[in-house]
Input
Amino acid sequence: MHFHKYEKIWLTIGISALVLFLTIVGVSAFAGGHAPPSAHETLDPQKVNETAPFNNPGLFKVGEKKYELVMISEAFAFTPGNVKIPKGATVTFIVTSKDVVHGFAIPHTNVNMMITPGHVNKITHTFNEVGEYLILCNEYCGIGHQAMSARIEVVEQ
Output
């Protein structure tokens, strides 16, 4: 089969780009030790209420303007449901599920996780604007999914 000179050039460029892309992904995934966030910490989903820190969910101050919010997702609620934090606080969300896959998203922020039973998920966000933020389940989790939400109220100090 005969290829035109320009076809050979573009095929070479395309294949080279593909090989470069796959090499970068491979090195990043394997040599760099990257893994999905939920693969780092696991627990028994049947014993969530007995396992620290989920045996005492809530908001905890861990430093100057630094907080940890330990939450449990289950059909069809987040525990705790409402939280107040000061403006400028950096919050690390530590979340797990007791039953099925749930979503954890805060609209208009970069917070978006898939919460799977048996895995501990963490994400950090700084709240610089006063207001009310809604935490939504964005993964269909059953018949009451549409009512699954929690609120974060950011207040002036």
User: Anything to note?
Assistant: The chain has a mean pLDDT of 90.
